[in-house]
Amino acid sequence: MPDTLTITDNRTGRQYDVPVADGTIRAMDLRQIKVNEEDFGLMTYDPALQNTASCRSGITFIDGDRGILMYRGYPIEQLAEHSTYLETAYVLLHGKLPSAAALETWTEQVTLHTMLHENIKHLMRAFRYNAHPMGVFLSTVGALSTFYPDAKQIFDEGLRELHIQRLIAKTPSIAAYAYRHMTGRFYVYPDNDLSFTGNFLNMLFKMAEAKYRPNPTLERALEVLFILHADHEQNCSTNAMRSIGSSQADPYSAMAGAAAALYGPLHGGANEAVLRMLEQIGSVANVAGFIKRVKAGETRLMGFGHRVYKSYDPRAKIIKKTADEVFEVTGKNPLLDIALELERIALEDDYFVSRKLYPNVDFYSGLIYQAMGFPLEMFSVLFAIPRTAGWLAQWEEMLADSEQKIARPRQIYTGSEQRDYVGMGER
Ligand code: CMC
Fold this sequence. Notes:
17 helices; 3 domains; two-stranded antiparallel sheet; three-stranded antiparallel β-sheet; 427 residues; CATH 1.10.230.10; mainly alpha; binds carboxymethyl coenzyme *A; Citrate Synthase, domain 1
């Protein structure tokens, strides 16, 4: 049997054979289906792109039904156990695990770029004392494009590599400055003797000590969280990165847009929303009442459900283990019992089971971040740091893809017919 789809247009009685490849038909193949010569041709209508593959990608594989996540073919469980964030970033960007020498060079190159231009401090100081750090983060990432005008030369491979290294290196520094700004503390310069996450903890939490020494459990926990968040194929913010990048904007500007998409409570803002929800519930005794409200459609169980995963999010399983390790150091987050009870009830309740709603990565990550001393507002920033690797890998892949053009969807126009302008006096 040929791999084609035969479509009968009942409006005209005509038949069309459309090729099927990789489980898809090309939307542009539908354009030939017309009722007459003036007809524009058939389009697909897919609000929120729920059933549209917008690209071919070799970066991240997800099987949502079986709860599988792999970066470049490496299972997330193995990366979380054995890898570091910087090595994982290399895997995403370069397609395979690095040799020892390649990893050393890559680590050195990224570490060289952790400093921020001094003017960034002045820029950040202009924000109000209570500015949300994610607003500060995304504005600063966008502002970096003005510091590096040659980043516009996106087809120069060497420059692209340089700006990728800069972005990966500088996002923790920006995030830490944003945090120090909101807490009214002096900004801490990077300590390049420390690991990627160790240095990040240094920039966040160093006070008067001559040398900051990160707690190894917390340093590793952050490493694991960063690995888990590094990429997730065509999610909302990655779609924004690709969409902005498709106009050939520089990577700093495109990433500012991607970070803005991540800010929303349905995406990177979800773990902040989970914590607010847990605080609002207040005690285990109130959980059943809250679930009732969710089932009545009055509110959502934040941290549950996913567009792609229709079984337990594999990242949530790893995070639960990391949470136990972190709580050994920090003491248990008092909200954990409420979260466990919510999960217990939801996993038994037909409302959630029938809709295949399971905990996602954000259900427990916020509890860890809070136990480590982060304010809720920092959670989406903590998501953005590792996702930088994924955004940039996806952006580069898009630039190299000869089928990609400027992203420009169609619409179904539902507005008024042509009408004449009426002067103010006659309206
Ligand atoms: N609580 C209660 N009901 C829910 C939830 C939830 N968290 N999520 C989905 N539903 C229901 C929804 O009401 C609908 O029910 P019905 O069929 O009766 O109308 C059904 O499940 C399908 O939901 P949907 O909104 O069509 O699903 P979606 O694929 O558009 O939404 C989602 C995916 C993640 C936005 C959604 O599940 C949600 O809002 N979850 C809470 C927010 C959250 O945790 N987001 C983090 C996602 S993971 C991190 C990331 O990728 O950024």
